[in-house]
């Protein structure tokens, strides 16, 4: 039920002139009594409307208070959850930093171990190459010596078969000189091959070692950069 406005009340309230024009003429006492009754009825109606509006206002105030309480409770809950999230983020940041430091330390240790292992591998490869080339050189020298012995034996047998001692001796000396010259040239060639092979092995191993070491250093730099980025983000 809505409250009646003052303008409506004024329009609904009959005036003295309207009452006199609508009804037959009466005496003044009867007219005054009718006006009083009308005003009393209107006042009763207004009082009822005011009471009803006061009830609605109380209900609205109660609902507003409950809504305010719920809103305050929701804000408090949000603040508590936000505090928990911040704490969790701080703990996660600490854990992440610790893990990164551990990984960086592990990479550094791995790089040092790899460097030591590569140095050992280079030394072993050099020894193996030297031993292999030395064995091959020795075999070739033995073969040349055997060939010299065979040639000497042939020359000796030829000297026995032939009676031309001087010619055979000269031939023997020529053959021996030729074979000795060949042996010297072969020995020099083998030494050159050994030196070249050793240099190539050392070069290849050094290149592989530097590549692996550069990769390990790059990994360590990346880990440090990630750690610095996360620290700046926090």
Q: Can you walk me through this structure?
A:
This protein has 234 residues and is mainly alpha-helical. It has one domain (6-233). 93% of the residues lie in helices and 0% in strands. The chain is built from four helices and no strands. The protein has helices at 6-12, 16-22, 28-161, 165-233. Helix 3 (28-161) runs antiparallel to helix 4. The radius of gyration is 60 Å and the shape is rod-shaped. It starts with 5 loop residues before the first helix and ends with a helix. Residues 1-35 have a biased composition (Polar residues). Keywords: Coiled coil.
Question: Roughly how many Å apart are the termini?
Answer: 61 Å
Average pLDDT reading: 74
The H/E string reads HHHH
**CA-based gyration radius:** 60 Å
- Number of separate structural domains: 1
Share of helix, binned: over 70%
Structure classification? mainly alpha
Beta-strand content:
under 5%
Q: What is the assembly state of the chains in this entry?
A: single chain
Work out the helix count. Answer: 4
Which residues sit in consecutive blocks of at least 5 with pLDDT less than 50? 1-26
Shape: rod-shaped
Biggest sheet record: none
Total number of strands? 0
Keywords: Coiled coil
Biased composition (Polar residues): 1-35
Coiled coil: 134-200
Region (Disordered): 1-39
């Amino acid at each position: 039920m809505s409250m009646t406005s003052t303008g409506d009340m004024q329009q609904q309230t009959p005036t003295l002139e309207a009452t006199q024009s609508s009804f037959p003429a009466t005496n003044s006492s009867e007219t005054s009594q009718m006006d009083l009754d009308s005003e009393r009825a209107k006042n009763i109606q207004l009082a009822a409307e005011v009471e009803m509006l006061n009830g609605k206002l109380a209900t609205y105030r109660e609902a507003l208070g409950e809504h305010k309480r719920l809103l305050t409770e929701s804000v408090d809950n949000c603040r508590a959850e936000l505090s928990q999230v911040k704490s969790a983020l701080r703990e996660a940041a600490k854990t992440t930093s610790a893990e990164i430091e551990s990984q960086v330390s592990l990479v550094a240790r791995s790089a040092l171990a790899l460097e030591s292992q590569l140095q050992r591998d280079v030394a072993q490869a050099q020894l193996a190459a030297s031993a292999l080339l030395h064995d091959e050189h020795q075999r070739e020298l033995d073969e040349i010596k055997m060939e010299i012995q065979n040639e000497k034996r042939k020359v000796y047998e030829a000297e026995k078969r032939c009676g031309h001692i001087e010619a055979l001796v000269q031939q023997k000396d020529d053959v021996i000189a030729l074979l000795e010259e060949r042996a010297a040239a072969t020995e020099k060639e083998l030494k050159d091959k050994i030196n070249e092979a050793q240099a190539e092995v050392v070069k290849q191993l050094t290149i592989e070692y530097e590549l692996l070491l550069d990769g390990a250093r790059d990994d360590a730099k990346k880990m440090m950069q990630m750690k610095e980025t996360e620290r700046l983000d926090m």
